Amino acid sequence: MSSKILQGNIRKINFCQFCGGPNKHEIPDGEEKVRAICTRCGKITYENPKMVVGCLIEHDKKILMCRRKIHPSYGLWTLPAGYMEIGESAAEGAIRETWEEANAEVEVQSLFAQLDIPLVGQTYMIFLAKLKNPHFSPGPESSECQLFELDDIPYDSLAFSSMLVTLNLYIEDIKVGRPKFHYGVINKRPGTSPSEIHAYTLDFHMQS
Ligand SMILES: [Zn+2]
């Protein structure tokens, strides 16, 4: 990826995270990218990709999905997933997010997919999981939670490209046998909105 794209994607961080002073946005000596540099204390506020962790929950040949009651993608369907917190592992985060969004207790089985989305600085880690008991209900961020047969997945109203890719890979695996592990890069077409979930290519796809 060219540095031009990366620079164009820099979000303005207006204030220093160390002293609260105003930042300027420049390329520091010896670096190649525009950074937020404090005009008062001189420290740089770096911004790095965020990890999104979640679960693909299999139950009776169905999968558990949640309908979002929050923005973005309000009213659209997703697998339970959210930002990993400091102090937890990816698997713990995926279990926690599932509890928060679907009131479901799950046991993580294996890592199913790691999907990088460079344009927005996110990496998704989606784990295969099983329900510890058959109980689930919408948490505060969901309006509905439902088990879907693979043929009934609400493809017309999915929340994110990452979920579309995850579900496509899963269904392809199930058709020929068992789920594998997938790594891939979701390159969103520049200039398309996050709601255009089909505007991507899946690159560097590796599976094992
Ligand atoms: Zn500062």
Could you describe the 3D structure shown?
The chain has 208 residues and is α+β, with helices and mostly antiparallel strands. It has two domains: 15-47, Ubiquitin Ligase Nedd4, Chain: W; 50-207, Alpha-Beta Complex (Nucleoside Triphosphate Pyrophosphohydrolase), CATH 3.90.79.10. The chain has three helices and twelve strands; from the N terminus they run αβββββββαβββαββ. Strands 4, 5, 6, 7, 8, 9, 10, 11 and 12 form a nine-stranded mixed β-sheet that branches. The radius of gyration is 19 Å and the shape is globular. The two termini are 25 Å apart. 28% of the residues are buried. Mean pLDDT is 93; it is low at 1-8. Zinc ion (ZN) binds next to loops. Keywords: Hydrolase. It comes from Solanum verrucosum. This is Nudix hydrolase domain-containing protein. GO terms for molecular function: hydrolase activity. Residues 48-171 form the Nudix hydrolase domain.
Please describe the topology of this protein.
Layout: H1 3-8, E1 23-26, E2 35-38, E3 44-45, E4 50-59, E5 62-68, E6 77-78, E7 81-83, H2 90-102, E8 106-117, E9 122-131, E10 142-149, H3 161-176, E11 182-188, E12 200-207
Parallel strand pairs: 4-9, 8-11
Antiparallel strand pairs: 1-2, 2-3, 4-5, 4-7, 5-6, 5-10, 8-9, 11-12
Zinc ion is lined by residues 16, 18-19, 21, 38, 40-41, 43.
Keywords: Hydrolase
Domain Nudix hydrolase: 48-171
InterPro entries: NUDIX_hydrolase-like_dom_sf, NUDIX_hydrolase_CS, NUDIX_hydrolase_dom, Nudix_N
